[in-house]
């Protein structure tokens, strides 16, 4: 039994080192805010948010082995459950005091509505303070951890965010063109793997899920953020004007997916081209 446990630890350690290589993390990993901050920035700058599997009606697995296989070894991206559960596994292995938090995506809803809890992020305790890490909220993914403190504006790389009360819950807001926009609301009720499995199944399999009906890809790059909504590409620079382009050919799509979002060739499936009406 001891040998088996040792093999498991060694196997996980090898996966962590491969994950570090995948996100180009070259520092010494300590259980501190500096490491957490660098890990989140490296992760969000290296692994694209994408829902290609759910959009092409494939199963999306969120067990640990599947997450490492897809996001690390196959160099794919993923959506919130994939991204944040992988990040959670890494933090837990490194020794961080971390636990998952379920959230309700509020984009498109009024604050008195209660949409399904279809988002996941992590709460980390470090030196008596708490931080939220979220590496999987699409084009609004915070590049850095956010300190859990109410009603205080926080600079997050090139964004401004804050946390406020929303009834018995909390809301996470970002400032867009001078106006506060609520991204999601959450509380600290305990959640289980079965909760995420059910929510994940809804996300990738339910016929009305937007992840099943719309292609969504985004990535933080050095100059800003890039997104793809179906065939509409946008570049949001930190400085300068927004650039938009509509993709019209299979060749253009291939260029954007492989070069701009740095995804592997495997994503260019017949099903993807069919759903985007690009199949020659």
Can you list the strand order of the major beta sheet? 5-4-3-2-9-8-7-6
Mean pLDDT: 94
Number of strands: 13
Q: Based on CA inertia axes, which overall geometry fits?
A: globular
Unreliable stretches covering 5 or more consecutive residues = none
Helix content estimate: 25-40%
How many helices? The count is 9
What is the CATH topology of the largest domain?
Answer: Arylamine N-acetyltransferase fold
Oligomer: single chain
The CATH class of the largest domain turns out to be Alpha Beta
Summarize the structure.
The chain is of the alpha+beta class and 280 residues long. The chain has helices spanning 2-23, 33-46, 52-55, 64-73, 80-94, 193-205, 210-213, 250-260, 270-275; strands at residues 49-50, 97-105, 119-126, 129-133, 146-147, 154-156, 159-166, 169-176, 179-186, 216-221, 224-229, 232-237, 243-246.
Please give a structural write-up:
This protein has 280 residues and is α+β, with helices and mostly antiparallel strands. The chain folds into two domains: 2-193, Arylamine N-acetyltransferase fold (2-Layer Sandwich), CATH 3.30.2140; 209-275, Arylamine N-acetyltransferase (Arylamine N-acetyltransferase fold, 2-Layer Sandwich). The protein is 35% helix and 27% strand. It is built from nine helices and 13 strands. The chain has an eight-stranded antiparallel sheet with strand order 5-4-3-2-9-8-7-6, with helices on one face. Strands 1-10-11-12-13 form a five-stranded antiparallel sheet. A hairpin with a 2-residue loop joins strand 10 and strand 11 (224-229). Helix 4 (64-73) crosses helix 5. The N and C termini lie far apart (56 Å). The model has no long low-confidence stretch (mean pLDDT 94).
